[in-house]
Each structure stands twice: as C-alpha cells, then as structure tokens.
Design goal:
By secondary structure, this protein is mainly alpha-helical. It has one domain (14-207). It has seven helices and no strands. It has helices at residues 4-42, 46-58, 62-72, 75-89, 95-113, 117-148, 154-207. The chain is rod-shaped and about 90 Å long.
Length: 210
C-alpha cells in the first residue's frame, strides 16, 4: 500500500491525467446505468404483442389496437401506432407507402436505443491509452528523481514505478466495464431492433396482404 504522502505526491504530479480518468469513470457509470434502464423498458414480448394485435385487427377493432400500442410506452408502440393510424386515415395507401413510413419510424426509434453508446465505446477504447500515458509520465518523473538523488537504491526505483503504474491500473478499471457494457448493450439493441422489424412486417402483412 502507498503511504498518504506518496499518494499525495502522485496526485500532485499526475492530477490532470487522473482527473480525466476519474471523470470518464463517472460518465461511463452514468451511461451504463441509464442505458440499462432505458433498454429494459424498451424490451417487449413480440409473440404476446402480435397475438393481441392479430385478435384486434381480425375483429376490425383498429382503435383498440392503436390504443394498445400507445399505452405500451415502448419504441415498438411508437412505430406500430402511427402505422395503424396511417392505415386508418388513408385506406387507399399501398404497401410501399406503409413500408417507407414504417422504415422511417424504425430508424428514429432504433437510433434512440443506441444513444450514448458511441461515448461508451470511446471511453472503453481511449482510457487504457490515457492510463498508459500517465504511467509513462510517472516513470519519467521517477527516473528524474532518481537522477537528482543518486544512490537511492532499487527500492526507490520500484516505488516510483509502482506509483506510476497506478494510472494504467485506473485506465483499465475504467475501460473494462465500458467495453463490456458497450458490447452487451449493442447485442441487446440488435435483439430489440429485430423484434421491432419482425413485428412491423407482420402488422403490415395484416393491413395489406402481399
């Protein structure tokens, strides 16, 4: 363990780099938590939704189907509800028009699902290098101190390098959860997007059969 004096000295020398890593840690944690809540709310049971919509549409209860989608408060509902509304207002609308409309709505909602993921991926990619940069700077300071105080012995060298490696450790500590969260959320977004696309295609087939 480092003494309080050693930690204070390390902070005084490397505070800009350590501050960046700590800020990235806080930002990464906030994004991971926010995306976990948002994606959990966005997930839905595709089979259950389609069974309900099929029953309502087969009974010509279009208003109830729209109300059902709007009450879900999920991205899939924000896509299907306007699609059903367009079908009701423009009964002569062809399949191509419905598909174009659905594609635009899907693009908007899917882009919202991936919000902040670019930042999370950037943090996971960059922070190890920031930590490594801090270590290099710390080692330079350590060897400079050794040169100025000749005869310090191997213990002084080892202590200086150990202090410098804290930046690398902190960089990895920040990067690993960010990379794991990025990959997990990317896969979850893909699953939700696939379910949304399949649901929209199914509803479109019911509204205007091929």
């Amino acid at each position: 363990m480092f003494s309080p004096m050693a930690l204070q000295q390390m902070w005084s020398q490397a505070w800009p780099i350590l501050s960046v890593l700590l800020a990235c840690s806080v930002l990464s944690g906030a994004i991971i938590l926010e995306r976990w809540v948002s994606l959990r709310r966005a997930a839905f049971d595709r089979e259950s939704l389609l069974n309900k919509l099929e029953k309502l549409l087969s009974e010509n209860r279009l208003d109830q189907a729209i109300t059902l989608c709007e009450s879900m408060r999920k991205p899939v509902g924000k896509v299907i509800a306007p699609l059903l509304e367009l079908s009701r207002r423009h009964r002569s609308a062809d399949r191509e028009r419905l598909e174009r409309w659905a594609a635009r709505l899907l693009q908007v909602e899917i882009s919202q699902l991936g919000r902040y993921l670019t930042v999370l991926g950037t943090i996971g990619s960059v922070t190890p290098f920031v930590g490594l940069f801090g270590t290099v700077v710390g080692i330079i300071h350590a060897f400079r101190s050794i040169a100025e105080n000749a005869g310090g012995g191997p213990g002084v060298v080892a202590n200086g390098i150990a202090e410098a490696l804290v930046a690398t450790a902190l960089g990895l500590f920040v990067a690993i959860p960010a990379v794991v969260g990025y990959n997990l959320y990317l896969r979850k977004i893909e699953r939700i997007s696939e379910d949304m696309q399949l649901s929209v295609d199914e509803v479109t087939d019911w509204l205007i059969p091929r």
